[in-house]
């Protein structure tokens, strides 16, 4: 199976080798957008400022301009000339005649006229330059991407996983969502997440999401067989990342473990247990929901053992300790094995949010 996987990976289109401007339709980096009314107001203000600036420049050189009436140029005449000139109306009743006035028209008035036109057609220019801006953002994003979390699948499970991460203090800039549904990716983008449009079962898509440099990969695919394939590909691409996968049925659990998942959550069994508990003790289910929701109430957290706690028992700490992580083992609190805490231990405890 591993040999077939490597052969399939070798045949994948290498998105990572494409130039950044060719990834605009694949990768989307969220940008802050102002309201349309604010954007229009800003453009109007800039346009008026350019006209006024041009009028003042003409007024300072009014002796170099000639009016067909032969009258001296007033401030109103200068503003009038600037308006018809910068808007390219050009009636021709006022024109620069001196060399200095013509030089100023070439070096200053003409660039201002061009800037004015850019402001007027700002919407079109914005559309044309959006691709360039996104390409620049993608370039910066790919250069800085390190120790982030890749979430494959942004359905109900994926969204809940992202909510839990962000509720636990992980910034949106350190989460990358991979999915094939544009509508789903749009929702993720609105939350401020970087999105990659593609299948998480393809190695080039995971590489584009920065999986080789990610600290964790969450597999939240809608189908169990897809979850196995994504996990297999993710482990091949990111051998050092922590992979957490979710499946509906427990029969896929051993396949995910064999594929390289560090932790597997079986959603159907977990839901079934909660349903059974809720029939007798519904308050217990409510407390479990509270512990799994980091934004309010209580939450299960993990921390290092402090130097003053080494050698002591978890039962004597002010925190309510549930378990001790020692190496690769999870030891429940209250057992003789954890009566004396060691320097490298980590504590799983209940934290009040």
From TrEMBL:
Phosphoprotein keyword on record: no
Pfam families associated with the record: Ion_trans_2, TrkA_N
Coiled-coil region: none
GO biological process: monoatomic ion transmembrane transport; potassium ion transport
Domain of life, per lineage: Bacteria
Membrane topology: Multi-pass membrane protein
A GO term from the CC aspect: plasma membrane
Keywords: Ion channel, Ion transport, Membrane, Transmembrane, Transmembrane helix, Transport
Main location per the UniProt record: membrane
Sequence intervals crossing the membrane: 40-60, 106-128
Residue ranges constituting the RCK N-terminal domain according to the UniProt record: 146-266
Cited PROSITE patterns: RCK_N
Compartmental location: Cell membrane
Protein name: Potassium channel family protein
Annotated organism of origin: Speluncibacter jeojiensis
């Amino acid at each position: 199976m591993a040999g077939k996987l490597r052969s399939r990976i070798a045949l994948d289109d290498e998105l990572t080798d494409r130039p950044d401007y060719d990834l605009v339709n694949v990768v989307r980096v969220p940008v802050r957008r102002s309201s349309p009314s604010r954007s229009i107001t800003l453009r109007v203000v800039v346009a008026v400022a350019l006209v006024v600036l041009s009028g003042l420049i003409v007024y300072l050189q009014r002796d170099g301009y000639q009016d067909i009436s032969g009258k001296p140029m007033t401030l109103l005449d200068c503003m009038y000339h600037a308006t018809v000139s910068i808007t390219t109306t050009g009636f021709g009743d006022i024109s620069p005649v001196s060399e200095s006035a013509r030089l100023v028209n070439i070096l200053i008035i003409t660039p201002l006229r061009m800037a004015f036109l850019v402001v007027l057609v700002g919407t079109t220019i914005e559309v044309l330059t959006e691709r360039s801006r996104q390409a620049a953002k993608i370039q910066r994003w790919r250069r800085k991407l390190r120790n982030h979390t890749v979430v494959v699948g942004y359905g109900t499970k994926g969204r809940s996983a992202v909510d839990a991460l962000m509720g636990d203090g992980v910034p949106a800039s350190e989460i990358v969502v991979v999915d094939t549904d544009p509508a789903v990716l749009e929702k993720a983008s609105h939350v401020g997440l970087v999105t990659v449009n593609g299948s998480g079962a393809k190695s080039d898509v995971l590489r584009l999401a920065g999986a080789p440099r990610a600290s964790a990969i969450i597999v939240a695919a809608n189908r169990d067989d897809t979850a196995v394939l994504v996990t297999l590909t993710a482990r091949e691409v990111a051998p050092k990342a922590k992979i957490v996968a979710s499946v509906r049925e427990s029969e896929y659990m051993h396949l995910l473990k064999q594929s390289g998942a560090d932790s597997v959550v079986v959603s159907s069994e977990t839901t079934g247990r909660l349903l059974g508990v809720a029939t007798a003790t519904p308050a217990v289910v409510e407390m479990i929901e509270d512990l799994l929701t980091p934004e309010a109430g209580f939450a299960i957290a993990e921390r290092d053992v402090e130097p003053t706690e080494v050698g002591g028992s978890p039962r004597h700490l002010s925190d309510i300790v549930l378990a001790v992580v020692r190496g690769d083992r999870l030891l429940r609190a209250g057992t003789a094995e954890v009566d004396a805490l060691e320097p490298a231990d980590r504590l799983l405890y209940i934290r009040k949010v």
